[in-house]
Request: fold
Amino acid sequence: MDATLAKLEILAGPAHADLAAAVARELRVTPLYRQVTCTDDGERLVRVDESARGRSVVIVQPIASPVGDSLLELLLLADACWRIGALRVAAAVPYLGYLRQDRRAYPGDALGSRVLADALATGRFLPLFVVDPHTPGVEAAFSRPVEMLSAVPLLVEAIREQLGPDAVIVAPDLGATKLARRFARRLRLPMAIVYKERLGPTDVRAHHVIGDVAGRKPVIVDDMISTGRTIAAALELVLEQGALRDVVVVATHGLFMGSAFERLGSLPLSRVVVTDTLPQPGNRPFPVEVVSVAPLLAEAVRRTRAGESIAALE
Ligand code: R5P
Reply:
């Protein structure tokens, strides 16, 4: 049978079963039964239902913390699907970890993004769906197709109504410039760029702002919020330059590691908006609005199977 015509199965990886369930609901299918257990010595035991045989399976699993476990679970699930005789195995990995290791800061560093790409190649995914990867150029490290999706249209619609013409889109570092430009174009707003220097894995310093932020409401956009240091450093500088103390922060991936919430809680933020590419529990010490990428992933899966373009999802 042609793999594109095979019945579709959505397989929930343990890293984000809620997102997998939401994608399955969008596609009106019941998630495929699977078991993922842990042995006494910490190994993962994975078993998928035999009904995966002859089917087209999409595994939903972000490379979420603990990233090593998430990656291995994804690869074990793929192996189980191939071995049972799935016709095609795709993966929706909305958050791909390790992509910030896209170059060596020191000669003795490992190139984590390349190692991740090589590991994922063993899953033989056709295709791999990712959302707003930190380094879009990482696609070149993959020999198999990678479909790059973006949450920007969803995030723009989540914030559009609240923004007047006095808002300014702020890229908190040079790496976020292209992302900020996409927000600015869609919202027809000016943009500013903060020049940030990373002094170490946990230390950043913002040096200067390119663009006019005085008297404007800053909307800081980034691909991810981890410790919140990048946002805090950029915000300190734009406030010094006269920006209004009524700030919106928007990012695709909310990692919220370490003391991120205390840090964000100390800033004059009116909204923090992220997506559910990673699990976002409700009981947070700081209010975070969550936009779901389930409709985006479901539509990308549907279009891929139907042989339709996914360019329109941009
Ligand atoms: C860095 O280049 C990324 O785009 C983010 O700005 C950064 O990883 C965010 O991390 P943190 O919240 O820890 O500053």
Observations:
- Helices lie at 17-26, 67-84, 112-121, 152-159, 177-187, 229-240, 260-265, 294-306.
- The radius of gyration is 20 Å.
- The first strand starts at residue 8 and ends at 12.
- The mean pLDDT is 94.
